[in-house]
Amino acid sequence: MSRVSTIREEPRTYELGEENQPELQPGLMRVYMQDGTICAVNFLCPCCSKAQCYTEVCLNAKDKKQHVWVFSRGANGPTIAPSVRYLSGCKAHFTLTDGKVIFHEDCGR
Known about the structure:
- By secondary structure, the protein is mostly beta strands.
- It has one domain.
- The protein has no helices and 10 strands.
- It has strands spanning about 5, 10, 15, 30-35, 35-45, 55-60, 70-75, 80-85, 95, 100-105.
- The protein has a 5-stranded antiparallel β-sheet, with no helix packed on it. Strands 2, 3, 4, 5 and 6 form a 5-stranded mixed β-sheet that branches.
- β8 (about 80-85) and β9 (about 95) form a beta hairpin.
- The protein is globular.
């Protein structure tokens, strides 16, 4: 599968637990801070199926007790590592590098 899309960071960050947040929009990533440190990011699944699932992807970037993704800001957009893989639902498997979503060959399977 060679489909590639993009995700860019929202213009502001949010405090973890902040109320009255606007609805997430496709292609935008929300960054959450706690005590001045990035602790989580979330965005809508870019999905590799023809009918986008728009499942909210919530990635932990701080709590070492659970699986943690590394978040960084590149010249053209956000990067997260390692890849994101859903074992159910749309079964998306993708990498986000410098704002580009790259779907893995097993995406959707």
